[in-house]
Amino acid sequence: MAAFLSFHCHSLPLSSETPLVKSSSSTTTTTVSAALSATESAATTAKLGNINNPIEIETYTCLTLLEECNTMSELKQIHAQMLRNGLFFDEFAAAKIVSFSALEDSGSLDYALLVFTRIPNPTIFTCNSMIRGFTNKNLPKKALHFYEHMITHDLFPDRFTFPSLFKSCGSLDEGRMLHCHCTKFGFSCDCYVQNTLMKMYASCGCLISARKVFDKMENKNIVSWATMIGAYAEWDQPIEALKVFERMEIENVRPNEISLVNVLTACARARDLEVAKRVHGIIEDLGIGYHLVLMTALMDVYCKCGCVSLAREIFDELPDKNLYCWNIMIKGYVEDSEYEAALLLFREMQLKGVKGDKVTMVSLLLSCTHLGALELGKWLHMHIEKMDIAVDVALGTALVDMYAKCGCIESALRVFQEMRERDVMTWTALIVGLAMTGQGETALDFFHEMQMSGLKPDAITFVGVLAACSHAGLVDEGISHFNSMRNVYGIKPSIEHFGCMVDILGRAGEIAKAEELIKEMPMAPDIFVLGGLLGACRIHGDLEAAERTAKRLLELDSERGGTYVLLSNIYSSLGKWEEAKAIRDLMVKRKIKKPPGCSLIEIEGIVYEFTRGDLTNPHSSKIYEMLDDMICRLKHAGYVPDKSEVLFDLDEEEKENAISLHSEKLAIAFGLISTSPGTPIRVVKNLRVCGDCHTATKFISKVYNREIIVRDRNRFHHFKDGYCSCKDFW
Predict the structure, then answer these.
(1) What is the C-alpha to C-alpha distance for residues 49 and 436, in angstroms, rounded to an integer?
(2) Which SUPFAM superfamilies match (predicted)?
């Protein structure tokens, strides 16, 4: 006999006693009287043909009733009748009672176990029913312990015993012990058993053992291939999964839907568009194009590989779409930065009567975050509450992030405080949001509170912390946090963290220290690190450092227009007009153009986009009237246009006119004519705010008594009463 398994659970009695044989008559009075009435007995007898033995007739009748049984109440009546007539001791009949009680949704495992303990000689079929019942009801320990006691009573397993047991394994050790038993009992070469054995090893994370089982299989079926591919895909080894698929193709194994879904899952994780398209061709060749799960998986791959248009073609062709299809498509648009398309698709989804869930809302909130569409984000928040969608950690974090990055930090704080559970991403979203809006000290307070709560910050958290130190002018504290990353939390600083430190030192005027830090970096500086240093040089008028930095920036990217602009502005601010002109001439010679700036503003739930000199808005005439009035009133208040921002050879009047048409000025003018007095104006810009627009917006906030929040590509600028939260450093 095989060695016993060491599973520690309460004993399950396996007895040959049969006290149920002499059950009280009260039990039998609840029999299926209608089924065993004289009329039905006659009808049953007629069906039996040549069966003349009364015991055989009654046995047949009970078994027929068992086949048609639907509830435990009916089963108990049949069971009572069988006990009364002594039929319970028929092995097949008793096994049917246990099978129904253990495996049917309306059954009862307790009743199955009670019946099992009264069977004098249970068969392995009956034992398997019990094990499957425990496994299906998610009682793995009881399944394993039942097996242990089964073999101690000389009831030996068959090829159907181990698949359920492998599903019940909670640890690798249990799985390995069962693998040994499987081999000793002679089932290690059975394909069905091997497939579930592979699945067990994969579930326990032991892909090496799963692969050994797979490679030793002499007769693999499609389930074997699908299981191995799925295991690699599940444990984030998509390249290995695709290698198995290639081998499967070489061996001319015909795939099924499940194997192809697993391959597409691997393609999505590996971002392998070529294999995905090959699978798409296989799907069409096999004629299974309307398999919903399969087509949804294909949509997911195309979205993750940036082919959103291909995903949309599949989406539009699907005759029946479930919520998962809609979520895949909406998320695909968001990941492809097509935020308006995601919101339009959600509108279409509503018109179809499909209700969104947490996943839908997270994607839509992310769209609002990037668009700066605060009003739409607020509507989504109300929709979440109206539809009673539970706000879990992921959805709560998305709300905090949306409010924070749309400049409504008060609402972000309120959502944060209302969350019952927060993870490191939730805290990070708030800390980063506070840092972006210039509330450095508050961000650091929350970082301290996060540490006190026992949560360990990650690398992204420290980006927010260092940004907060920069905005608050806390150089020493910034250095301390930077050092604690490696020394306390074991986080290796990335180039983003070095960029933050350069910003901290540069903001404080420590240009030389910032340059020294760049030299000591373990990696080469990128355009963002050097761009931050060049910005600091502009603020502090350090021409020599600016020239050195600009030279390195142009070596990295000679087409980057922002570098030319910044260096030209530095020359202009120091009165070096010839040098400034030389930079501008160089731009013309190299055909360098500054990337077109655009600004977004949301009015009554609609996001409007402006570019320089935009005339596409239907309210353009009123906007330009307000712009003229705005410039006039600003000049009266002391505003002087900064013409150094113009990089082309124009006369002074043309220069002034050019800078007055910048996209953020148009967006603000539209906000002034479209909102009530005193209402905050929120603008999102794709580029860094230029110096002239920054100065002009400070004057606008004071002259028109408006709070103006501008989010550029670096940070928030909160203008109020003629001042900006960035303290003129950005």
Answers:
(1) 87
(2) TPR-like (SSF48452)
CB 57 within 8 A of CB 44: yes
Helices 374-386, 358-371: axis angle to 10 degrees equals 170
SS3 category, 20? helix
- Tallying the residues shown for the chain, one arrives at 730
pTM of the model: 0.77
Q: Centre a 10 Å sphere on the Cβ of residue 688 and count the other Cβ atoms it contains.
A: 19
Q: Please, which residues bridge with residue 467 across strands?
A: none
Residue 193 is predicted with a pLDDT of: 94
First-last CA distance in the chain: 78
pLDDT in tens, 62-96: 667 777 788 888 888 888 888 887 777 777 778 88
Q: How far apart (Å, rounded) are the C-alpha atoms in residues 279 and 314?
A: 14
In whole angstroms, give the CA distance from residue 693 to residue 462. 31
Q: Given this model, what pLDDT does residue 400 score?
A: 97
> Measured between alpha carbons, how far is 545 from 511 in angstroms, rounded to an integer?
8
Residue 205 φ then ψ, to 5°: 85, 10
Q: Is 26 exposed, middle or buried (0-12, 13-18, 19+ CB in 10 A)?
A: exposed
Nearest Cα to Cα of residue 70 among 106, 22, 24 = 106
pLDDT of res. 61? 67
Burial of 724 by CB count in 10 Å (0-12 exposed, 13-18 middle, 19+ buried)?
A: buried
> Given this model, what pLDDT does residue 644 score?
59
Q: Which residues in the chain come in under a pLDDT of 50? A: 1-51, 647-651
Amino acid 92: pLDDT? 78
- The C-alpha torsion from 452 through 458 and 464 to 470, rounded to 10°, is 90
Contact 665, 696 (CB under 8 A): yes
Q: What is the pLDDT of residue 579?
A: 82
How far is the C-alpha of 639 from the C-alpha of 722, rounded, in Å?
11
